[in-house]
Task: inverse folding
């Protein structure tokens, strides 16, 4: 089985230069291929495939135009890939599947630096860094997200891309069959909530990351910087026609970056937390996991809930849990959201219709009592009507 992973990297200045140069050269070659074929067409000559273009470029064009030899400075694999991509764009056009290939514009298009595993040392991935041909070791921002080579995973190929000044690596990984673990003979129910993030039927509770001191402090800081930004905008309005306008504008740009950086930082912490939760849950190797079908869309419509829901990344949790379960062969059961997981007594099965949101403890007439969410997680675990994701 093959799977792709994408994550942010933290390249050095030198690596950034190399990446930018490679992407720039690939964009040039992509556009050159299109332009050259256009010219051939206008002269009534035969269309050139990527292969014949490559031969022409190396044996004819570069010999006559040595000023373009900088094309050779970057990874030839990546350059070749950009020719192939342009060729694919043409074949799609010939098959009437898409329009005539367009030129790639700087900063606006999706040109990537391609790499492929050629020898055993290439594409080696450790928990915190990955070895990319022509770049060397590159630091990973999110540690342990890409499966490591030591675990038996093989990276076949990948790309490095840049978006809004941030760099990403995307890799295609061959997952060996023997990596499917032996699953244990038990299931887990997970109750997701706003107070705590997840209550698991094995007794483990995952706290709400937004209630930690770290996030609270960053959120406060963010609010402060946002207020500062809007003050600066007000300032600009007042000074609209005066000399100081330009300085203020630069000032605002700085402040915008500050706010963006804080946003990213908070978002990264939340994503890391989601990944950690998913990993810890599947690590116990249950044969199945049951969760409620969250009505995220409905909750987002509720003004009071939407912010809390969005910031807890329930949807991302569900998507990542589903992917991990598929990978490991764990059955993911989705229970209808009308299933009364909170109101059901796990002991005697009766339904407590008057259970209020404020009731933290579930107390039944049969003598059973438990934490409300823990009771819900047990009911989810034992649900007999569900869909399989
Ligand atoms: Zn009961």
Result:
């Amino acid at each position: 089985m093959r799977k792709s992973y994408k994550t942010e990297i933290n390249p050095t200045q030198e690596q950034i230069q190399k990446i930018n140069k490679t992407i720039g050269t690939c964009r040039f070659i992509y556009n050159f291929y299109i332009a050259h074929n256009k010219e051939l067409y206008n002269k009534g000559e035969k269309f050139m495939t990527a292969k014949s273009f490559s031969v022409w470029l190396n044996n004819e064009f570069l010999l006559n135009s040595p000023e373009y030899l900088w094309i050779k400075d970057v990874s030839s694999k990546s350059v070749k890939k950009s020719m192939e991509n342009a060729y694919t764009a043409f074949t799609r056009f010939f098959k009437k599947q898409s329009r005539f290939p367009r030129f790639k514009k700087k900063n606006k298009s999706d040109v990537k630096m391609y790499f492929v595993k050629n020898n055993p040392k290439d594409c080696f991935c450790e928990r915190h860094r990955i070895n990319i041909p022509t770049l060397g070791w590159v630091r990973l921002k999110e540690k342990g997200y890409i499966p490591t080579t030591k675990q038996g995973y093989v990276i076949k190929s990948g790309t490095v891309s840049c978006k809004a000044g941030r760099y990403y690596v995307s890799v295609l990984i061959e997952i060996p069959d023997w990596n499917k673990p032996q699953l244990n003979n038990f299931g887990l129910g997970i109750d997701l909530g706003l107070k705590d993030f997840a209550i698991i039927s094995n007794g483990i509770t995952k706290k709400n990351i937004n209630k930690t001191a770290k996030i609270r402090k960053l959120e406060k800081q963010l609010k402060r910087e946002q207020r500062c930004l809007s003050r600066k905008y007000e300032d600009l309005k007042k000074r609209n026609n005066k000399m100081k306008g330009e300085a203020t504008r630069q000032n605002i740009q700085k402040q915008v970056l500050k706010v963006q950086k804080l946003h990213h930082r908070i978002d990264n912490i939340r994503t890391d937390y989601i990944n950690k939760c998913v990993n810890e849950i599947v690590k116990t190797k249950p044969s199945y996991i049951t969760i409620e079908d969250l009505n995220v869309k409905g909750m987002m419509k509720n003004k009071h809930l939407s912010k809390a829901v969005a910031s807890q990344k329930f949807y991302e949790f569900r998507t990542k849990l589903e992917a991990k379960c598929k990978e490991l062969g764990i059955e993911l059961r989705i229970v209808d959201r009308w299933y009364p997981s909170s109101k059901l007594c796990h002991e005697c099965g009766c339904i407590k219709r008057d259970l209020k949101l404020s009731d933290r403890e579930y107390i039944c007439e049969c003598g059973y009592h438990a934490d409300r969410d823990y009771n819900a997680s047990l009911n989810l675990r034992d649900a007999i009507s569900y869909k399989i994701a």
The CA atoms of residues 94 and 180 lie 43 Å apart. DSSP finds nine helices and 14 strands in the chain.
